[in-house]
Amino acid sequence: MEAVADGGYVPRRGRPPVSDEQRQQQRLDISRHAVRLFAEQGVAATSGEQIARAAGVSERTLWRYFPTKESCVEPLLTKMIDAFQAVLRAWPPDLDLIEHLRAAYMPVLDSSSADIAAVLAVVRMTHDEPALRAAYLMLRERSEDTFTEVLAERMGLPSDTFEVRVQAAAMNAALKIATDHLAQATANERITLETIDRHRDHTANAISLVTRRLSGNGNS
Question: What is the pLDDT of residues 162-182, one digit of tens each?
Fold first, then answer.
């Protein structure tokens, strides 16, 4: 603080504090650049310095946000995980889950086709990059808590019930397989609305295989 003539104080001039929204946006921007570099030249050949330079931030900022260069993919992957969590939480009580997924599900939350393509690029890379695969599977495991919570409410059972946990795990596995299928199917083609529609149907069909007991009113 700086003293003034009347004995009061005025704040020092400098950069205004970064809001949480700005921080999250900066993490997402870094994630986009990291994924692009990983896809272009491989994870091993990409350094934190390169990612920071591409994103227009200092290395210090990069490492403040991410413990490792591989963890830079997490903000983009989180948008994919959040997409299914959001549609599941918005599941109307009088509507069958499969019908709801066919009407409302999108593979990446609030994103452009470029972000969808970037997420799918990461999913493809997880097959050859153990560190990326670990980050991906960790996020998927965390998302299972939301699936368990919603399914428990629909089934009228405690969330720690064996049947609820099995249903949530099976749903998570089905979603992963549907996403893997989309990633491989779009490896050499542009993502279109028709592509998304097919993925929505594949996802709904996959989920239907493991949630046959669930109906719009939660009864068997």
Answer: 999 999 999 999 999 999 999
